């Protein structure tokens, strides 16, 4: 099956991204699309989290129905998002977010690319049009998260 997987998160396929924040509000240098562009010099860097709102998130909109089989994420060590919950939208963009119970993300504090595979059965699971990763906390004292690369692999 691995030979059939394609990268779904390519911006050249129309995929877009948004996030809870960007460092210094500079989306050109630190915005979420930087995590999807396959350039290791770029990254999404979240702003410092506020005590009143510590939750950070990263959303990927595919703008087409896709079957997600795995996520590959490269964080900057020391700035890793932890206590993750993955949500998905099934149907259209007006649909509500539903928790994706088949995709569990439990990152370690590392610079290495980490792969998280879906436990869903392709034959019976619904295709989604968007993914949302919510980070409950960060390994950084100030709550910042840095993602150099976020790739979604699966089928269209």
In a few lines, what is going on in this structure?
By secondary structure, the chain is mainly β.
Overall geometry comes to globular
Report the C-alpha radius of gyration, rounded.
15 Å
Major sheet:
9 strands, antiparallel
Please state roughly what percent of the residues sit in beta strands, choosing from under 5%, 5-15%, 15-25%, 25-35%, 35-45% or over 45%. 35-45%
Tally of helical segments: 1
> Helical proportion?
under 10%
The N- and C-terminal alpha carbons lie at a distance of 14 Å
Number of strands: 9
If you average the pLDDT, what whole number results? 90
Q: H/E series, N to C?
A: EEHEEEEEEE
Task: Identify low-pLDDT runs.
Answer: none
Structural class: mainly beta
Describe the protein:
The longest helix has 4 residues, at 27-30. This protein has one helix at residues 27-30, and strands at residues 6-7, 16-19, 44-45, 56-75, 81-89, 98-99, 113-117, 128-138, 146-155. A hairpin with an 8-residue loop joins strand 5 (81-89) and strand 6 (98-99). The model has no long low-confidence stretch (mean pLDDT 90). Strands 1, 2, 3, 4, 5, 6, 7, 8 and 9 form a nine-stranded antiparallel β-sheet that branches. 3% of the residues lie in helices and 42% in strands. It has 156 residues and is mainly beta.
Relevant terms:
1 helix, 9 strands, 156 residues, mainly beta, nine-stranded antiparallel sheet
Helix and strand topology:
Blueprint lengths: L5 E2 L8 E4 L7 H4 L13 E2 L10 E20 L5 E9 L8 E2 L13 E5 L10 E11 L7 E10 L1
Antiparallel strand pairs: 1-9, 2-4, 3-9, 4-7, 4-8, 4-9, 5-6, 5-8
């Amino acid at each position: 099956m691995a030979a059939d997987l394609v990268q779904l998160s390519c911006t050249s396929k129309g995929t877009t991204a948004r996030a809870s924040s960007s460092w210094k509000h500079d989306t050109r240098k630190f915005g979420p699309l930087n995590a999807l562009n396959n350039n290791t010099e770029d990254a999404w860097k979240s702003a410092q989290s506020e005590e009143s709102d510590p939750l950070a998130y990263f959303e990927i909109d595919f703008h087409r129905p896709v079957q997600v089989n795995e996520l590959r994420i490269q964080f900057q060590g020391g700035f890793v998002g932890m206590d993750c919950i993955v949500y998905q939208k099934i149907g259209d963009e007006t649909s509500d977010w539903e928790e994706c119970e088949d995709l569990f993300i439990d990152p370690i504090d590392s610079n290495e690319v980490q792969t998280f595979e879906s436990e869903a059965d392709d034959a019976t699971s619904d295709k989604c049009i968007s993914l949302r990763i919510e980070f409950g906390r960060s390994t950084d004292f100030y709550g910042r998260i840095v993602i150099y690369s976020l790739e979604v692999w699966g089928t269209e």
